[in-house]
Structures
1.
Amino acid sequence: MSQTLLEVGAIVKSAREVWDGPGYIVLQDDVIEDIGRGEYPGSRAGMTVVKRPHRVAIPGLVNTHGHAAMTLLRGAGDDLPLMTWLTERVFPMEAKLTEDAIYWGTLLACWEMIRSGTTCFTDMYMSMHKAAAAVEESGMRAVLSWGMVGLDETSARSGIRNSESFVGAWHRQAGGRITVTLGPHAPYTCPPDYLQQVAELAGRLAVPIQIHLSETRTEVDDCLRLYNRTPIAHAASCGLFEHPVLAAHCVHVTDEDIEIMRANDVHVAHNPQSNLKLASGIAPVPSMTQAGLIVGLGTDGAASNNNLDMFEELRLAATLHKAVAFDASILPAAQAFQMATEDGAKAVFLPAGSGTLEKGAAADVTLLDLRSPHLIPTHSLLSNVVYAAGADDVTDVFVAGRALLSNREPQTIDTERVEYEARRIAQALSQ
Ligand SMILES: [Zn+2]
């Protein structure tokens, strides 16, 4: 048994409960064993004591959508619409990605996410056993899927085979930090019979599904033309929603789509920055949350963002929808914070309590420097975290009770080596 006592200057337990004064958190193995205000009243014997009197503890941020090793494609194709970007820039470079590249690209993503306060992320990509190895090594929590594309018989079959073996090898592994889901890419890359096969496989393996849905207007128009249904209605008709589903984007959804998602408890990953950069549009998040949908925040891959900084998504989510609705109260700071933490954790199927600092929750904690000039003074701690804090304020990160970042120093990643390998691989990709 290992016990860490965190002594901090303030605690945001959840979007509902903020303690603006000293407090403590006891991390025992991988859960929060105790949390309280003021001094820890018990014995410190046998505990690792971490004193951070000028830091605020928040639940670790949850990135609900991304493609980790796309860090290697960062900046390789900007200012293009989704389909041109995919076919002319992304797919040709991805064809050159080796297993080695996936491993180093994922580690680079883990380094970047740990540095910016993210404790759990979602990934849909290729050679995923290498991505899982990087996750295991980094100490992060992750929800991983092997991207499935069914445009031809060979790729369709290998998608099923790879996913099946990936579930067998990595689901609930790395001390329970890794969850495996199925990852059918999208309705425009997975024909209906393939989506049906994926749905059956999800049932047989008892794992959730993550998929891109209704990302662009073109996708919706094509789906209506081909199947006479919206992508959401189409996914439902293929049986996907009979299983737990995390749908990324949902930018172009109708009221009927939202009702289908509500009736089937479909979770949503909102990726405001990626949707803006690819000119896809703005998801009707207030309508979705008002309908009762679970909506988390995500960065998407670093090729369409171009970083994995969840603080940017948090602030963007909290500001963007106000301007769309001409209503400053439509998505308040507390709700945005909940999307980045507790609702994000629910969206990616983590156990109840995850994404909060409640007793019994997973010991995933991020500390921010309260003495950063832009966090002074403190009229509202939550407001400062949502509207003023940034990745550079992150000083310490714990996942499952283990320190992955300590006083801004990564503890699990050889950052010099990762930098060297990422630059080497990127050079080969661009040749
Ligand atoms: Zn994506």
2.
Amino acid sequence: MTRGPLFEKLFEPITIGKITVKNRIVMPPMDTDFGTRDGRVTKRHINYFVERAKGGVGLLYTECASPVGPEGIATPYQLCLHDDSYIDGFRELVNAIKSAAPDVKVVLQLHHAGKQTTSEITGGIRPVAPSPIPSRSFMYPETPRELTTEEVKERIEAFAKASLRAKKAGYDAVEIHFAHGYLLHNFLSPLANKRTDEYGGFQGGLKFARELIEAVRREVGWDYTVLVRINGEDLFSEGGITLVESQVIAKMFENAGVDAIHISSGIRESDHPLADMTVAAPQGAWAYMAQAIKKVVKIPVIIVRRISDPFVAEEIIRTGKADLVSIGRQLIADPEWPRKVMEGRIDEIRPCLYCNEGCYDPLFRNLSISCTVNPAAGREEEMRIVKADIAKRVLVVGGGLAGMTAALVAAMRGHKVTLVEEDMRLGGQFKLIRSTRRAEMAKLVDYYEVMLKKYGVDVRVGRKLDEELVDEVKPDVLVVATGSTPVKPKIPGIDRPNVYSVFEVLSGRARVGDVVAIFTCSYYCPYTCAKGLCCGSGYAAAFTAELLASQGKMVYLLAERPEIFSGMYVTTRPRLLKRLFLMNVKISTEVRVKEITEGGIVIEKGGVETPIAVDTFVYAVGTKPQKPTILEALNGKIKEIYEVG
Ligand SMILES: Cc1cc2nc3c(=O)[nH]c(=O)nc-3n(C[C@H](O)[C@H](O)[C@H](O)COP(=O)(O)O)c2cc1C
Ligand code: SF4
């Protein structure tokens, strides 16, 4: 196995407390909700984490656990470790990880949701907090109950006892979660801690945190590794924990006997652009926070957030901004990231899109995680790719994401695969993302191109499905993945020359003027928006608006439905809307476009008709499937025909 010399620092071992970690790559705690309703480990956890351990990560966090049972869970199926009967389940998980990857170090994060939960999730227990101040996020409407001084001390003990249970279960370390707006973070936050007892205010919060670490140490001893996760900054436009306060907090933790500080940032309602979880935020953008913390402590510092580019990861370590890098969603998307980087196979990494569609957002809809680009995430056994008993000739028509995936999986299973695409480039509509400010997401197309080549798929671009092709390839199996075409809204004037589909704009085929109206989220769209399910036209409209506004154009974003982008969910939608607002995009909902005229459009809102002067009209109102015309003629000629996408 050869190590890419470019990533020397990333693969240097490091000592944290009593453990030596084989490299600088950390999989941070990420709730999966694969647990049972009473918070126990399942086989699904085991398969999922074993796969990630085998991928070569140095420090692996399994999902967080509540030390107080249901009161502390943020999602319904989160794990718990509030009594000894839970230890065996965790032990089984750790043993499975260690037998698959003996050199990986395993950490358990202990977490109390505080006010960032609901009575529904906790099974009827009212959320608790240092002070009865509700979260500013609409997701947590209840005013939390203030913990009494006695109850605060009980919670401290609960963390200590759960830490000992983690040690008994075989974990190499525990991490105490002081970040992200949960209970322990709230004790340190000037906005959330208004107590008047010994734990009140910033000094009281520090006392609370110190006593908690002392209690943990009393239980686990000094021969065990203890980490904390804190926010470098809360990333509010006003208020919240600042970097200077975090330096004080970090120093206090070091003095209290903590072995490493894991820097994260933000809470649910953080409104700073750096809190954006998508590709709109730069890679490694939070490294400056770790750098500031490293100035005041000598123990190792870990940094997280949007680090999937191995060059960025190496640079962070090499320049001493942090000692380890946490790579979260990218390890859901491709658990083999560490191994591929180590072996210099960077172009074979399946990139995370940072979309949150499969992983983060479902948690807020009480669903377990999955992944947009990795169907095997959380279904490792069912989706394992195995060699087929009989190798077949497979013809895939359509080189969009669905077609490329079908072709790749078929080839990995040992079939002889031909992939044809009418366009001169692979990627279907998705490749158009390259021209937006989200171009990083197009790495997914690059990944497929590399992998199709690696697995010997015969890729033919600029080629249509016809009888001649079928006669030549003689497929046993035909996979039709010919995608869709945009729905054209039936608006008078829609055939004017200054009217384009969003795809025409993104493909550079449109002559876009200076004042543009983009019409989306309309009843013309054949799909029904559901929470957490955007048909894609919303994204196309949003990214086009973002692109055109960044070019200095005046952009109207008009939605016919009462809510724009209602399918997008909590971790992306609010920040996207704010971003568009800051770019001066004019968003209006419940708007009907009555007519497209020579000088603009006529809209109707609330029964009032208004003309708006625009020079370009763009629509993104859903798509409809398109099928090759000769498909019916092929029935009977090819044994198996499947339609995908
Ligand atoms: C599905 C999911 C669950 C998460 N659960 C937790 C958690 O339980 N505790 C925690 O501290 N952070 C949690 N996080 C935050 C991650 O640890 C990490 O900080 C975040 O994903 C940013 O890193 P990334 O950009 O590399 O994904 C979660 C993130 C995701 C996507
Ligand atoms: S669902 Fe999206 S953000 Fe989450 S891991 Fe998969 S690609 Fe990344």
3.
Amino acid sequence: MSALLRPYGDATGDGRVQLSFTLPIASSERARQAALELARKMGFAEPQVVHMKEMGPDFSFFIVYGATAHSVDPAGLTVAEPDFPLLPSPEINRIIRDSLKRQLVVVGACTGTDAHTLGLDAILSMKGFAGDKGLEYWQEMRIVNMGAQVSPGEIVAAVDEHAADAVLVSQVVTQRDAHIFHLQEVHAALTEAGLRDRLILVGGGPRFSPDQAPALGFDRIFGRGTKPSEVASYLAWKVGRRAGLSEADLTRAATLA
Ligand code: B12
């Protein structure tokens, strides 16, 4: 059934939304008017600046509240089907065991100048993220967490040393698409070392979306809010497929609670 949805602010369907942005102008009445004019140009009716804060001497941060005339019909959207099944924990261990007859070795690193390790740790470390345990929880996985500011050459060396099956690369901070460039560097280094084809190569970070994977030469990219169990499911599903486990087996595994 199709139903047009409009944002809810003060009353149902009033279209009111909140928008935040920064302008390169010192905080002042002129800056406030500039923010309001920008909001009007973006199509917001009755905009109000509900927050203006100086960001150093030359920049101002704004939160603007206003009404949009647009609506959306969720039923009319094309939504991508999940590209791998979410698997229960025991099935993740079972599939890895059946496929490899040994532990799956995962090397993880933040590359480039990026010092943001929390995202990678959320995925790898036992304590996990949002109530979900990290990859260290699965006994059929061995995790090598290399931490922050790891160069592509160091990742290649670690893949060699640990005979890794999967490489997980994190990029959180970015400017001028540096996060994309750094993933490309890792891909190039692994390819040059002749290791790319035998690895499951996974990237992640809040600026990425899964549809970027093919262009970057990665098998899968995970974005903002990823849960470790999604990554564990993906890795098990991928090794299962590579080992020739049947689609029926993998699908059955997904339905076992
Ligand atoms: C904590 C933090 C820091 C800490 C990092 C500590 C640490 N050990 O990680 C410190 C203080 C060091 C820091 C420094 C800086 N930071 Co900072 N930081 C943050 C902050 C507040 C939280 C990030 C975070 O940990 N989120 C929680 C984790 C769990 O979420 P996540 O990273 O998105 O990870 C999830 C997914 O993205 C995904 N994921 C991430 N990686 C991977 C990898 C794989 C393989 C997979 C599968 C999934 C995956 O899974 C995770 C779980 O869901 C953000 C703002 C914010 N609220 O996000 C700014 C932020 C990221 N920082 C920012 C900036 C600018 C900086 C600095 C440049 C500031 C400065 N001028 O010095 C420096 C950069 C230092 C450097 N060399 O990298 C900006 C980046 C803006 C941009 N253009 O990219 C942000 C967005 C703040 C802002 N709004 O300006 N920062």
4.
Amino acid sequence: MSVDEPSGADRPDTASVTARQKQMVERSLREWRGDLDGRVVVVTGGARGIGRSLCEGLIRAGARVVAADRTWDGAEDFRKQLDAEQGLAVEVDITDDAQLDAAYEAVTDRFGTVDVLVNNAALVSETLFAPTGHRNTLDTTDQDWEAMFGVNVFGTLKVIRRFIKPMQEKKRGSIINVVSSGVLPVAAGGGYHGLRPWTVEMPYQATKAAVTALTFYLAEEVRGDGVAVNAIMPGHTRASWFDTTARAFNDMGVVYFMRPAISEHLLPITLFLSAQDARGAAGRLYYVPEWNYDHGFGDYAAWLDHELPADMEEMYRRLEAAMPTYERSGVPHLPFDAQGALYTAALADLGSQENWAGGSNQ
Ligand SMILES: NC(=O)c1ccc[n+]([C@@H]2O[C@H](COP(=O)([O-])OP(=O)(O)OC[C@H]3O[C@@H](n4cnc5c(N)ncnc54)[C@H](O)[C@@H]3O)[C@@H](O)[C@H]2O)c1
């Protein structure tokens, strides 16, 4: 079989994959039906990407949703939709104290309280170092680090300081911090090493590591107030920057890591964490694809996006056709390093490995 021409048999039936994804979304909405009715959920970075998708799901789950974002450019339709659906769109830069005070006032004026906060807003590498998202650490400037820590760490903390107040007063609430699997250490032989330190992601991963540590420590400090603080790691997900980055890699002759998941794969765990408080899970760090698998919401492959634009479909089909078959009895889905090994093998087969400066997979 030519690597350029994957056989029809190897291609998934995209209509049935998409139908199954829709079924899993509907099932999650059924599973938490009623639990979020009328709850006020604030999602930062809610105008686009993962944040928008979470807002749409939370609205369908019956929550009153506040989508807060630095800019609504290109998202005016969603802004109108939020107004029409009893939600609230707020324009706020989370690094700005005065704007945050005004946003907090707007939310409490409108809804009187806050039940859930999803800290999703972030400056990602692909935006700071557009379009590839890659810059070697020694080539980054202090300003790069200040900009990323300003949004991802200090901005997140500024948001928490304000929006946690009504939760503490009510002795009930949930905070969900969106981090990244790139922060994970792995133990081997008495030493710890990074899960995938070759992906060239400073200072982004340093900020996500800081938010992960904040999650663990803050969770214990506010557990007694009834507020749960947890973190989630999405995995490789098609967000607002994705197509531009993937195409930039394609132009360099490199396939941009593997086919991404659709943003909806984050909905079940977000509903679960939003519906509970510190009497449930608190101080935990969840990897979303594993959580989905363990809770009957499919493995990672079940959420992959098979409705990409034609040029990107062609790129990922080429990669998938070149990937070695991986089968190990008793392992129903691929651990991260096995995926990485397959990807590297496929790139080598495609002859494009030498163009690769380290694949980013936030
Ligand atoms: N997409 C992935 O593969 C992936 C993987 C791991 C983690 N994440 C995390 O998921 C979250 C969402 O990212 P995404 O991939 O959807 O990216 P995205 O760029 O599509 O969305 C990020 C949103 O945050 C907003 N934002 C940025 N700076 C802001 C500021 N100062 N104030 C207010 N809003 C601001 C942006 O305008 C944008 O709407 C981030 O925390 C990111 O680190 C994403």
